[in-house]
Design goal:
The chain is mostly helical. Helices cover 79% and strands 0% of the residues.
Length: 457
């Protein structure tokens, strides 16, 4: 019989957490399906990498712009109420998007410069963004409902739901787009949003109402107070800045990955492939429920980034869907460790009544960089790198061994991104803020007297 601490999801507060997690899984599937599907659909209609980059940019700008506000809502109101309001908001935006899709002429969808096309995309993305409030509320509910020494394992379950979301999403989004455009995708999102609201209406979350906001008063976002909390933990601001930089170069990954894959295989195969790759996230999340994230989750987070950027250099070396699968699958396996590690750090070192704001602030700062990259990289790839490797100087210089064509232009973007990310992560591992945050995390464990109080390496 193993003496490892285990989650018990069938009784007490952890059962409530299981209900919220299941609801979040369903909503994540719907929202990811909308995001994946509209990206696939726009590229297939317009054949424009620039358009897919703009979609990524719209999503990330909205995510960055709303994170701090959403975090203040999570802290100032009961978690149950804000989650339910999120479901209603998504339902309303999806209904508006469906009306636009059914009423506008088909010619609109084939013109990447059409204002009506982008009105449709923005309304659809607002429905997805409204669901982001769950992503901020969920880790605070882990703090509320799960014992301290089991939270990293609960965070692993959150990572598992993310993997399941990608698995289901990747399969159904490609199929829905191939056979019915965006109509069935939007209808699915509407049904899931309504069903989630009905499901959680019967779930009671016992919590005290937290309205303390510090100097800015009970109704303010209290950004100054949040900055004081973040600055008061040695190394925490550096961690958020590191994640921000990662997202800055990761925006290139987001802007180019789908067009790259769709140059190699059909939309149906690409969707099914991401379904297969997402099993890695599921397995990784389940492993965390048994192993945790280690004595020093800060180190775990940085090591995962080493794997990420190495993979980003390796898989584009050859235009091969097999190489992409072999390289990306280990990445998907370790990705939940990064997410669980960051959540576990914040849950330890930030007071509960401030966690919504800090999670929201971290989301805003970390996501703020990606839109800039997406907006820059998409046109750079479309108008510079693809011609460079199709019939330009790059095709003549390295084309004989690297290959030529649009996919090779995108491959150069991936490789440059990976090299930069690898160098920055190695510097972070040797930095003083890394050591400071590791010590701060250890001190919180020692003060709490929980079973995992061993000193981090």
């Amino acid at each position: 019989m193993s003496d490892r601490p285990r989650l018990e999801l069938r009784t007490g507060p952890q059962r409530v957490f299981a209900h919220v997690l299941a609801s979040s899984l369903a909503v994540s599937v719907a929202n990811f399906t909308v995001w994946f599907a509209v990206t696939f659909w726009i590229y297939l209609e317009t054949r424009s990498v620039f358009a897919t980059g703009v979609i990524a940019g719209v999503f990330l700008v909205a995510t960055a712009g709303t994170g701090t506000w959403f975090g203040s809502l999570v802290d100032r109101h009961r978690k149950h109420a804000v989650i339910q309001a999120s479901a209603i908001a998504s339902l309303v935006f999806y209904a508006m998007a469906l009306a636009l899709y059914l009423l506008l002429p088909e010619a609109v969808w084939r013109d990447a410069a059409s204002p009506l096309l982008w009105v449709f995309v923005v309304v659809l993305m607002l429905g997805v963004i409204a669901g982001n409030i769950r992503g901020i509320a969920l880790p605070t509910l882990v703090t509320l409902l799960v014992p301290e020494h089991l939270r990293d394992r609960a965070n692993g379950l959150v990572g598992t739901t993310t993997g399941v979301s990608f698995l289901v999403t990747s399969v159904i989004s490609g199929l829905l787009v191939a056979f019915d455009g965006m109509r069935s995708t939007i209808l699915l999102a509407m049904v899931v949003s309504a069903a989630s609201f009905v499901h959680l209406a019967g779930v009671r979350i016992e919590e005290r109402q937290v309205v303390s906001t510090g100097d800015d008063g009970p109704r303010g976002v209290d950004l100054r107070g949040t900055l004081r909390v973040v600055s008061g933990v040695p190394g925490l601001l550096a961690l958020i800045a590191f994640s921000c930089f990662n997202n800055f170069i990761g925006g290139a990954f987001m802007a180019v990955m789908d067009p790259y894959g769709l140059e190699l295989v059909s939309v149906q195969a690409w969707g099914l492939l991401w379904g297969v790759l997402s099993t890695g996230v599921i397995v990784g999340g389940l492993l965390i429920t048994r192993t945790g994230v280690g004595a020093n989750p800060v180190r775990t987070l940085l090591l995962v980034n080493l794997v990420l950027w190495t993979v980003c250099i390796v898989f584009p070396l050859k235009s091969s869907i097999v190489l992409l699968v072999i390289a990306v699958l280990p990445l998907m396996l370790v990705m939940p460790y990064a997410e669980a590690a960051e959540q576990t750090i914040l849950q330890r070192v930030v007071p509960y009544e401030r966690q919504g704001r800090v999670f929201g602030f971290a989301q805003s700062v970390e996501q703020a960089a990606s839109p800039l990259t997406a907006f820059l990289v998409a046109p750079l790839t479309q108008f510079v790198m693809i011609p460079f490797m199709t019939d330009g100087a790059g095709a003549r210089w390295i084309g004989p061994w690297f290959g030529t064509g649009p996919d090779r232009g995108m491959a150069l973007v991936f490789i440059a991104t990976g090299v930069i990310g690898l160098v920055v992560t190695l510097l972070a591992l040797a930095s003083r803020p890394y050591r400071q945050l590791s010590e701060a995390y250890h001190d919180k464990i020692a003060a709490s007297g929980t079973p995992d109080g061993s000193r981090p390496s």
